[in-house]
Amino acid sequence: MKKPFEPNLGTKQEDFSKEELNKLNKSNVFDQYAREMRNDHGDISWEAEQIAKSTGIYLEFDRSVKGAEKHWMYMIRISNVGGGPVNRQQWRLFDELASKYTKNPQGHPSLRLTTRQAIQFHWVSKKGVLDIVKTLAENKMPSLNACGDNTRNVMSCPLSQFSDVFNANQWAHKAGSYFQLPVEPFIKIFAIDPEKMDKPVESFQYGPNLLNRKFKIAFSAVHRDPSSGKLVPDNCVELRTNDLGVAPMIEGDKINGFQIYVGGGQGERNGKPAMAALAQPLCIVGEEKLLQVLDAVVAVHQEWGDRQN
Domain 13-304 belongs to what topology? Predict the structure, then answer.
């Protein structure tokens, strides 16, 4: 039975949840987070844990271990925009870092590919977190935006980079770069070489408390049938399950605009005021206006999203 729920749209600051108030104080929490990741405690404070999410890190504990002392560990998620490409050197680093710093209950390294095209390290001890994040960030695989209240890993069909009509993979990378969180705190916390981190030429203006929730974006693709030569749509990303979806519109032998879908999600929880929904059509735009429209949709979410619940 669903509980009735009235969202607090455009939430006033006096109604902010404790998570939102913590984000407003994040400039102070950044320094606290950096210190706590280098101390001898297995865990980190609640305040630092909330900030850690936007750097791709979740604090967890082994529920199979009984006793007063929790066995703390970390999950690290790496953004892999558009599903790649990941080159050989990068994949070798993933393999080496997993072998060095992760160990599941069976004694094996733990590295996973997710349904949203990200890459995850599980069962990571605290001492391994800094090296994993720093090493991969300096090799163009940052953990920024992988978790937290911001746009998440932007999805697309990886094969679309070979399409002669629409490169959805390229557009996913463009959107992923545009919506990337500011890199300066990330560089400082993890002591990353700033010369090895790409900084976007233009970017979305995240407010002091970011977004109110995670926000997922995906691009569907178009391929040419090799036997008939006809254009065929490819929805391998399950476009309408995302907060914002971009679908190229086929007209004859070319792409004639993009259908924008908004409002999708899979956040169904029993007994909670949440629901799974398919995104609904919002508008059709030309490619020259596409990034501007994406910015506007996320900005509305940022300004009007419920920050109390």
Answer: Sulfite Reductase Hemoprotein; domain 1 (3.30.413)
